[in-house]
Amino acid sequence: MDENVAEFLRRSILKIPLGEMKTILSAWNFLSEDQLQTVNLRQRKEFLAQEIILMCEEKCASVDDMALLDIVYTQVHRHQKLWNVFEMSKEPGEDVDLFDMKQFQSSFKKILQRALKNVTVSFKVDGKNAVWIRIAWGTQYSQPNQYKPTFVVYYPQTPYAFISSCRLKSTVPLLHQALKVATKHHQIVQLDLRSRHLDSLKAIVFREYDQTFENHNSTVPLQEGSLGLNMSLDSNIIHENMEEKERIHRVTQDTFGAYPQPQLEFAQYKLETKFKSDISGGILADRKEPLRCLIKFSSPHLLEALKSLAPAGIADAPLSPLLTCIPKKKMNYFKIRDK
Amino acid sequence: MSVLRPMDKLPDLNRATVLLVGTQDALLQKLAESMLQEQCASELRVHLANSLPLPSNVNRPRIDLIVFVINLHSQYSLRNVEECLSHVDSSFFLGKVCFLATGAGRESHCSVHQNTVIKLAHTYRSPLLFCDLEVESFRVTMAQRLVRMLQICAGHVPGISAVNLLSLLRRSDSPPSKEL
Amino acid sequence: MASAMEQQGEKPAAGAEDCGEVRDEPQAAGESIEDRIRLLLRLRAQTKQQLLEYKSMIDASEEKTPEQIMQEKQIEVKIEDLENEIEDVKSSFEVKSLALNRMKLSAALTNNIEKMGTESSVLTDDMKHIIKLHKLIMKSQEESSELEEKLLGIRKKRLQLKQTSRSKLLEIQTEKSKQKKDLDNMENSEVIKTMQKKLQMEIKITTVIQHVFQGLILGSKTNWAEDSALREIVLQLEKDLTTI
Fold first, then answer.
1. A100 and A32 part of one domain
2. For residues A172 and C186, what is the distance between their CA atoms, to the nearest angstrom?
3. How many domains, in total, are found in chain A?
4. Between A164 and which of A151, A222, C113, C197 could a Cys-Cys bridge form, CB atoms 3.0 to 4.6 Å apart?
């Protein structure tokens, strides 16, 4: 077994928390069940890693197997990467071809290998109509860097692909080209949507969020009656604005819906508009150039936070449409210009 | 009846009613509960409102004290209170109105300057109390003060009237004249 | 207002009726009767206070508010004045009630003493003690004022001494400086300078003359060492005049 492969395997195994070790290793499907049973999970991680590597050596693990382990790990820890959303489109008038997984995989691999001699491309098909692709980039002269791979999650029946953010900017056009050609599309466009939560991105893009969906990080469950606050146990406390509260609740339900919101971390608004002010003669008034301003909202669960603004009394209901349109428009990066 | 008047109804025997006005229900609720937990010889009623004017179709008792709760972390609550003040009759401000500013403890989160609130209270000649309603012990102390004020404003304490209390609570220093 | 007052009068009456029902159980009733009575008394005080407030509101609303629209600053000033008025009224009320209390107390004291006569009682003992203490206070105040005066006199004397010593020292200083100035003047006077110059001139002239005579004698090639008179003259001519 190659030294680099062994080192990479060792580092990957050290990354995996002990609680998930068994599940990840069995999902990897490289070591047999009996071998997995014999692994002693109670020892220190270094010894555990050594044991597993010995077993892998016996089975002659290759670069592809190691890449698969990486994919399995990333599937479980998908929130460690920042995912960008890409939409592909065909020319109008083209037929919808039937998707052939094997053909797609071989075509994709060929394109990349033709352009760059040294790339490692691995595929894993997820049962739920998704294929996970891992690409480790090298150059004409150097081996692929296995520690900075790019991950692509492609849904074959749809024109959407999710690509993890990669530091190597030069590889991006090549990747896009390969995707376009392998999937027989003409264009690939990046949407202004970015998040660490792949499932939330999926829900927004495929408009699945009005059904309850599973979230790896379960957030605070929605209280169906947020009016629960008003159920005062004390009859001596009387709420005067019940109507107003109900109105706010209704408006919030209408804009956001009664289901849990997809999880996004931030929304960014880039303003390039002229400054409008009632006070003439101010410092910023009467300027011809547009005012450049960047506003960023960040939160562990942005959309739930926005939803709770009006009921908590921090903002007026209804909220600004710029905030409420995020899932509908599939954007969380906005550029606002004068019309 | 869009304007609140202090003496337009007869008082109920042994009952004192306070109206808490503020945008954040959670804070008002907590304060109301703390007030009701206080030992008090008179019966207390607490009404919570987000804004004035109050809906007119409800039969409510005479309001003895109005407490406007301003959260220094949010400009929205200040604006809300300023709008509500025009729906209160001027005779209320003879000791039956009090301003309560919360959130002054976390200076970095404050978007409303303390001087703004001080000026507001000075303009309306009403006492201004600072209290962090999130902290249990401060809230309990403030509830005690408010209950005592409420009793005086309802006329349950012989010998002291609301106007008397107002002149006792008057600040001797005027707010800084510089606009911030 | 009258009907409302009647209505409120009925409520305490109803309370009294409830009171009557409870009288059947003596033990618990005893306490609850007291509670009821306390409640009634409290309600009475409350109602009195509330009535007072309503009356004062009515009186206040009978006063005419000024019709003209005043500027904000003027309103503020007026409000300050009114607030100060309230404060003045309150403080004068306090002072008056204090005075009244004092008068009441002294009246009660005199009554008490008249009743009891001049036999020893706690009050008379206290009063005698008070008078003794007052006398002591007055005496010690006198003593302390005398001592203060003495202290003041001594301080004055000390100050005077300080001042005279200061003036004396100042005189000495001025004298010294005057002497020094005169000395400098003398050294720098013009007369001395001109005299010095003349002296220098004379010395130079004499030196030249000496050299001339020397030259004459030597040039004549006579043997001046043999003639005693010539020898003396030559030796004298050698003397350096600047060292004289």
1. no
2. 104
3. 3
4. A151
Q: Do A48 and A140 lie in a common domain? A: no
My answer on whether A202 and A148 are in the same domain is: yes
Q: Does C50 touch chain B (CB under 8 A)?
A: yes
How far apart, in whole angstroms, are the C-alpha atoms of residue B67 and residue B48?
Answer: 10
Running DSSP on this structure, what letter comes out for residue B11?
Answer: P
pLDDT, tens digit, 9 for 90 and up, residues A314-330: 888 788 888 888 888 88
Report the alpha-carbon distance of residue A126 to residue A155 in Å, rounded: 10
**Residue A13 belongs to a domain:** yes
B82 vs A: CB within 8 A: no
d(CA C40, CA C11): 10
Q: Can you count the helices (H) and strands (E) in chain C?
A: 6, 0
Dist CA A190 CA A176 (whole Å): 10
**Residue B158 touches partner A, C-beta closer than 8 Å:** no
Spatial separation of the C-alpha atoms in residues A80 and C204, rounded to whole Å: 111
Amino acid at A293: C
Claim to verify: residue A100 and residue A200 sit in the same structural domain: yes
Q: Which domain holds residue A159?
A: 83-206
Pair (A110, A197) in one structural domain: yes
Residue-level length of chain B: 180
Three-state secondary-structure class, residue C71 = coil
**Could you report the per-residue pLDDT of B83-138, keeping only the tens digit for each?**
999 888 888 888 899 999 998 888 888 888 999 999 999 888 899 999 999 889 99
Distance from CA of C39 to the nearest CA of B (A): 9
**A226 part of a folded domain:** no
C-alpha torsion C170→C176→C182→C183, nearest 10: -160
- Are A250 and A180 found together in one domain? no
